[in-house]
Amino acid sequence: MTLPDGFIKMLDGLGPEYSALADTLTDSAPEVAVRLNRAKLDRHGLSSLPVTEGAAPVAWCADGFVLKARPAFTLDPALHQGLYYVQDASSMAVGAAVRLAAAIIGEKNRPLRFLDACAAPGGKTTAAIAALPPETFVVANEFDPRRAAVLSENLSKWGRSAIVTTGNAAEPWRLPGFFDIIAADVPCSGEGMMRKEPQAVAQWSPGLVESCASLQAEIVASLWDALTPGGVMIYSTCTFNPVENEEIVARLIDFCDAEPLRIPELETDGVLGAHPGYMFPVYHFLPGLVPGEGQFVAMVRKPLITSGGETRLPRVQQQTVRVPEYLDGDYVYSQDKDGRITALPAAHRALAAAVAATRRVRQAGIEIGTMKGRDIIPAQPLASAIDLRHNAFPTAAVDLDTALAYLRRQSVTLPEATPRGHTVLTYGGAPLGFVKNLGNRTNNLYPAPWRILH
Length: 454
What we know:
There is one protein chain. The chain is an alpha+beta fold and 454 residues long. 27% of the residues lie in helices and 25% in strands. It has helices at 5-12, 16-19, 21-27, 38-43, 77-80, 93-105, 123-131, 145-158, 198-203, 206-226, 246-256, 349-356, 380-384, 400-407; strands at residues 32-36, 56-58, 61-67, 84-86, 113-116, 137-142, 163-166, 179-185, 227-237, 259-261, 271-272, 283-285, 295-301, 331-335, 340-345, 360-364, 366-372, 375-378, 395-397, 421-427, 430-437, 442-444.
């Protein structure tokens, strides 16, 4: 791999740590890391997973581990069960920032409201969910509808209720003062991904850096109005240059009176601070200095006293449907015109309606299933839900070969004593997914778009 001359010159101007970065990008291989879904593991009485055996912990993420080698993730049912997420270790830093942001804001007499404005494929969103109180109202937005489909799948597997929207993050949100915490992992020139993605090398140019910085400034300005007074914004990129990083943060400080915040959990060996000339706390992750790819993270707080309005929550009509209470907790169930049933925490209904008035909603809460006559055909996100009641359905434990056959959407054979009807297959002590046991055969209900293809 040959790096662009302009990129190498840019690195040389950033200091000795960055001068050595060019050799790291061309002569070393990326590390592989995973982050455990602690809430789901605890729910099913699991303390660890085989994938992390012998792995090294990530300094800034208690549930993050750097693996010795890359396993065949696709053939590990635990990945499909949402028991862990494959995520670059540097990207896990956003979870530490979200945890601190929630502590700074403190308790309110309502659920916290969190927005991941550029969310696909969902790694940082799931990290944020893990760092937030479980009752938090979470919105994950993605511009590209195809990437939004992947985002929905990954959030469903993670197992917490979330709203997935599609839309341009740079367009006005029309939700003044609505969100307590906003994470903006903005589109960037991708310098930090050059070890992993040849396209990042091929596309790099000074013009791309300037173009990305312009878009980043638009996104941040659009999101700022949607942040509540005293709220926290977490800004991140996978780039090294100050144009896309410190300069954007400086604009928030200079023009929006934003207060830059330290993230002590990220002040660890190998993580660098701001480039010369910038006197506020930011965090640069460089390959070779940390076991991950390039990442930049900064956190700022909006003044407590600001001009602007506040979003009024709409009145929500009680259009709910009575179904078995499949979930533990205070959920309300609704049914759309196609018979699809979803569950949403009762405290989130008006919040979800407010978001739906401004954005196209792809997913609203946890998909329960589809009404067919008098029957409900359960959906895979219900099996993945952390709050699924332990006795909601009969269960049948399966071995690895059967689990993989199920994930390929093939027919599976159940133990003879398995009751007829909808059954949850389990593997390793956690739900895998639904089948309908017909006695002489089973219908595999795993979603076709999610199936293993090899």
